[in-house]
Write a structure and sequence with these properties.
The structure is a homodimer of 365-residue chains. Chain A is mainly alpha-helical and 365 residues long. Chain A has helices at residues 19-40, 47-58, 63-74, 82-106, 117-124, 131-158, 164-189, 198-225, 230-257, 260-263, 269-273, 278-286, 289-298, 306-318, 321-342, 347-361; strands at residues 110-111, 114-115. Chain A contains 16 helices and 2 strands. In chain A, strands 1-2 form a two-stranded antiparallel ribbon. The first copy, chain A, starts with 18 loop residues before the first helix and ends with a helix. The relative contact order of chain A is 0.11.
């Protein structure tokens, strides 16, 4: 779950709806909410946890809130509506929940350049020589902080200022997003049969863990809160799913072929981890028995070196899998633009969405 | 977090509002919801998890849903309202979330007579010789199942059929309950300074982890959903807090002095675990230096035998701490009845609440 590079400055013509403004509004809403929660905490023990939630959440790119804004503006509503900033902040808190628990499950050491939440609390344990207890304390506190982010995400949504009946109408998209994230997470950790078709499985992970969660649902939530009809929501779904998928496919390509100087991500991580991406699934499908044997011996090897990585890249290219994934990205990106062509949405939203399609699929990081 | 023994048959005069009927309605609502979630699951991988949620949740005594019913009926509403059964089921799913995560954090092996959720999934891991991976898989899946219970609890609440504006008005009590549970949980796991006054700390745990969560908030939620005014909700708060506190204090006494044949709980568990109850806090406060030294050497000793337990019980009695806790239970129970005396609530609800006060405070298990 990497974030889209949304740091590109929007074109000046989009001044009425600028992603930077939306991001700032979300940041403010989040800060205010956490201030309130600090004041209202039922017990002082929560304060240090709230500080960690604040620090952790501050590092996000606000991707989901921004897509939510896009849906809202696309459905003709005002980007300056304060309630929407709170909805965006609620989505960001939900994302913090997902990441904090994901990091515990993966036992990751770092996130956004800092120690993960469980690592931070592990280091705060008073008896450092008792490693097992320190680790347990770190993991337990991180699970609890994730739980807090999840329930507070809902609290902020309920207190956003969106009319209760409107919020009620948008709940199906919100609950769908939540459950899809759970499914995506379980697909990641479950011990599945190796008889599953790897490409089918890669699609399931992409759909549940990235495509719907990152783009499709936030867009729909924004539009549903604005009262959009089901035809409009279906079109946004087609657009969002295609964009989310192409984003993830591009991410997988960058994870293998990207320049680490540009992506900011160590070049061999995905290969060493043995990440079961669509690129890998298609390579397996197309590989000769000899190529498959080499792939099996190198992919997922935690000691993989640059030479082994080169061999893997070569197999991915030679089988045509890399090219196929590139074509998948292109097809989806064209699909997105076709949906926008036939939708009738305000120019400001149309422009921003087109920019996002280009940013997500043609990017180098 | 033990459950009240609500298996007592309500008196025949309460036929219009019977706890057994309410419990059955909640069970049905829960089953139907989980059927729906199975049909609507975004990915088939969720099915085995839903089965575990169903089995786990089936074991509950429905304490929180029943208090929610009491609040609803006390505020003059119909106990046969189908939406309330779904609200009750939502509270029960929330409780499943709290227990499943609590068990992971405590690394407990059993719950309600069965292996805990993380233990169940640990046993399903295909490579049993790799203990560390099996344990991680069990814990990760249990965290995720807790997350699912938490988000579905909210989904069921939103889809309960309660009018959105009414639900919106009751949200402050629902969100307060959720956050208090988080605080209670953190008080349990945090590494606090031993300079804290132990009795003060025991109150904080009782209030956040049991009193408000088990009785006060569910009562208020039921009444708030029925549109009760703030004066009524405040009275219910006084009643519920006093009942919840006396319930927990009685539980602590039973954990030390109860007959394991009757309580169904191994007699030495609380003492071996070194549970920091009010009873223990008051014993520490009243103990002589010699008694304190014996207490320190025996309380929390995982190998404690019946003779050591006898010594601890003797100290708790001799210091007068046990008697003081008994008086606290009585004072709170009188308080509850006094609140009921001055409230004007329907006879059916009044009768059931009086029964519950007796059941919670005079019980032997």
């Amino acid at each position: 779950m990497t974030a889209l590079p949304l740091d590109t400055t929007p074109a000046p013509e989009t001044a009425t709806f600028r992603l930077d403004d939306a991001r700032r509004r979300v940041d403010t809403a989040l800060d205010r909410f956490l201030d309130t929660q600090t004041d209202r905490a039922p017990d002082a023990c929560l304060r240090p946890l709230i500080d960690v939630v604040r620090d952790f959440t501050a590092g996000g790119k606000r991707l989901r809130p921004l897509f939510c804004y896009c849906g809202w503006v696309a459905a003709g509503h005002d980007p300056e509506e304060p309630a929407l900033a709170r909805v965006g902040a609620a989505l960001e808190l939900f994302h913090s929940f997902a990441l904090v628990h994901d990091d515990v499950m993966d036992a990751s050491d770092t996130r956004r350049g800092n120690p993960t939440v469980h690592k931070q609390f592990e280091a705060r344990y008073p008896h450092q020589q008792d490693r097992r207890s320190a680790e347990r304390f770190g993991a337990n506190t991180a699970v609890l902080i994730g739980d807090i982010c999840l329930t507070w995400s809902d609290e902020l949504l309920q207190r956003s200022g969106i009319r209760p009946d409107r919020l009620h109408e948008a709940m199906p998209w919100i609950t769908a997003m939540r459950t899809e994230v759970m499914a995506g997470q379980y697909l990641d950790i479950e011990q599945h049969e190796d008889t599953d078709d790897p490409a089918q499985r890669a699609w399931r992970v992409i759909r549940n863990k990235t495509a719907t969660y990152t783009v499709e649902r936030p867009l729909q939530i924004g539009a549903a809160l604005a009262g959009a009809d089901s035809g409009f929501l279906d079109e946004l779904s087609r657009f969002g799913r295609a964009l989310g998928e192409s984003f993830q496919l591009r991410d997988d390509l960058l994870g293998v072929f990207g320049d680490p100087e540009v992506t900011g991500k160590p070049a061999l991580d995905d290969l060493r981890e043995g990440k079961r991406t669509m690129l890998v699934a298609l390579t397996r499908k197309r590989a000769s028995p000899r190529q498959l044997a080499v792939l099996d011996s190198l992919h997922g090897d935690p000691e993989l070196d640059e030479r082994g990585a080169g061999t893997l890249r070569e197999i991915m290219r030679a089988t045509g899998a890399a090219g196929e994934v590139e074509r998948m990205v292109d097809a989806r990106s064209e699909n997105c633009l076709a949906v926008l062509d036939r939708m009738s949405i305000p120019a400001a939203a149309d422009r921003v969405l087109r920019e996002l399609v280009v940013a997500a699929t043609r990017r180098h990081r």
